[in-house]
């Protein structure tokens, strides 16, 4: 069936739409590309580019009303685009398999891990129960899980995110398929885990000569891991070619923009040097936070963290999940009592706040959260979302309130016409601007940005970051910037704390942290950031042209 | 785990005691008592002294605390007192009236669960979209049907029009078909609604896409992956709906003239037969508490995430 010079996957003039009847919405238009045996092809694009839809169609996995309108999908030379479910089931697993995006939700929570690996063998295999069980252990060992016999009996909630992704990889490689589709396989994982998982996928793929279709929004990952790049925008291919060639000399304007907007460690900040004459606004000394566990145990989430932030500067708190970064900023914002140490913001000692003094304190410290979809009430108009903090604090007459709201909305770069809309009518970037406007309307001294740009596409992320920089310069704001993304931190921060398991393993000016880190952990973190094969000349050119803040 | 079981049993006993105490206070607060209602009637022509003697014999006089303690001790030893209206021990009345209700309630529950699961499975697996949509809307229709109306309609249609189930001298099973159906429908409807909703929700989860990518059939996905997760919220509701079952049994028995706890309750209320009412309240509470205790014990068996509740999360 397969002959050696044939592509494993060939997509020809594919068009896909969603919706019903006459109101169908095209999301993929006339897309063609191919994946040769043993090749890694990266489908790159922002949200809404059609990259996930394209990848799903290869498995016949289009969600809901999705339908292939035109074109063909050739797997090993056979067009599967019009196959029925029964025929598709036969190839899912043995010919093409999936490594999903979100390992935490991709395993059935009520079935043991081993059972879920065995299932793919049961569906396609003729193995006896005993042989299948043995093969499960073999597979779990192969993907590098320690104590595979124990893991097989455990349930998903007993494994970490990285371990769950290993289990899902074991399922994907179980029947040695010709093609694996990896849909953002590491976007939900910490950067050090991400690197190990990508290395594992690489090793296994090479071992069996499997082809890989890698769907990702992260250009760093695509640059490091793929042989060829397919760049999608609004469902159309913008550019396609061997990865090094595309990176060295992108032909389309969109690819160039994508590449220059992607944050990169290689770019030095062009932020002005820290003004040491400015007074320190936030001072944290020996902050310790304990949580009670059942059975009289205590868990130390934050252990002796100290830093100080001069007025008008940005301090970044960096760490992976469970590092204590969120707990730290919750304490600074007065949402969490510290067990030890001190926090001072201006004249206020945060630890001594009472319910009476806490409210006036809240207007000095405002928060912007990660998820612009969850942090705005879907039933309130943009106007009332931004107005609400004023109602809570300032008994202003109505016309003055309205003019304050309008002024701040314009200040964050939105037209005043959005004020009458509801959040769902806005894009992710616009919503995050609204969240920033809501935080700024009270004229706070400190703005806490909790992963505030992590959920955004790179081009939108670059816009929001430059807006934040502008607002800081004009209004003299002090930022506490919490992030797991080191490349973003490098761009925006003046000083950095690196947290690991609640301890502060590194602290200092941003240049020092990135160029001369003192701890092994920080070094590991920096090395794990993808994008080593990145075309930094583009960044540097863009920076010279003043496009990157 | 044993600690969890013991503490849940302890809580259940506490709830029972509270139900007993509250119902005792409420019943005592009612004006008049059963002895007065029955024996003040001029048919008996009793003197106030004789009535006082009867009151003492039935132990309805005395201070509230003494009565409370006496009744509590009696209940703990399985002595539910005497029905004043019928003049027989309450336990004897329960012995005749409890079995029909238990049969009705348990058959009704089984029928309700079967019906709910069938409707939910059909709405997920039916071969045509129009059929799936139709089945999808059935529970919201049934949820708004009152029990007494449904009972009367079922008798009208099946007994009088179609003459499928005879009302006069029915066989033991025949006599149960319509009451069980009447009881099952209003319980099956919300249960099916919850099941359908959670099936729809579970089917959008990423682990279902992973199962499809393994090459699993729709049937396998439904029973292997969806069912085990969708049943969890339905289980909680099933426990709560059991209360509905007790209330529904009272109405159903009245409509179909079954000699069960429902009839007994109705009579006891109109006669202020306190011992009977007290016993019924405590037995209903015991049934309710037991069912919910079972639900609580089933949960960790069905959901592995609840088994390691004391484990450290760090």
Protein model, in words:
Chain B: The chain crosses the membrane at residues 104-129, 141-164, 176-196, 230-256, 276-299. Chain B: This is ABC transporter permease. Chain B: Belongs to the binding-protein-dependent transport system permease family. The complex is a heterodimer of chains A (549) and B (314). Chain A has 549 residues and is of the alpha/beta class. The N and C termini of chain A lie far apart (54 Å). In chain A, strands 6-7-8-3-9-10 form a six-stranded mixed sheet, sandwiched between helices. A six-stranded mixed sheet of chain A has the order 16-17-18-13-19-20, sandwiched between helices. A four-stranded antiparallel sheet of chain A has the order 2-1-4-5, covered by helices on one side. Chain A has four domains: 1-95 and 178-265, P-loop containing nucleotide triphosphate hydrolases (Rossmann fold, 3-Layer(aba) Sandwich); 104-176, no CATH class; 266-364 and 447-528, P-loop containing nucleotide triphosphate hydrolases (Rossmann fold, 3-Layer(aba) Sandwich); 373-443, no CATH class. The model of chain A has no long low-confidence stretch (mean pLDDT 88). In chain A, strand 14 and strand 15 form a beta hairpin. In chain A, 37% of the residues lie in helices and 25% in strands. Chain A has helices at residues 51-58, 85-91, 113-124, 129-142, 148-153, 161-173, 191-208, 219-225, 243-248, 253-261, 325-332, 355-362, 382-393, 398-411, 428-440, 458-475, 486-492, 510-515, 520-528, 536-544, and strands at residues 7-18, 25-36, 40-44, 67-75, 78-79, 96-99, 179-183, 211-216, 228-233, 236-242, 280-293, 297-310, 314-318, 340-345, 348-349, 365-368, 446-450, 478-483, 495-500, 503-509. Chain B has two domains: 2-76, no CATH class; 90-306, MetI-like (MetI-like fold, Orthogonal Bundle), CATH 1.10.3720.10. In chain B, 76% of the residues lie in helices and 0% in strands. Chain B has helices at 2-29, 34-39, 48-57, 64-76, 90-125, 129-143, 147-161, 174-203, 206-213, 218-256, 261-271, 274-302. In chain B, helix 1 packs antiparallel against helix 12 (274-302), helix 5 crosses helix 11 and helix 11 crosses helix 12. The radius of gyration of chain B is 25 Å and the shape is flat. Residues 309-314 of chain B have low confidence and may be disordered. At the A-B interface, helix 2 and helix 3 of A face helix 9 and helix 10 of B.
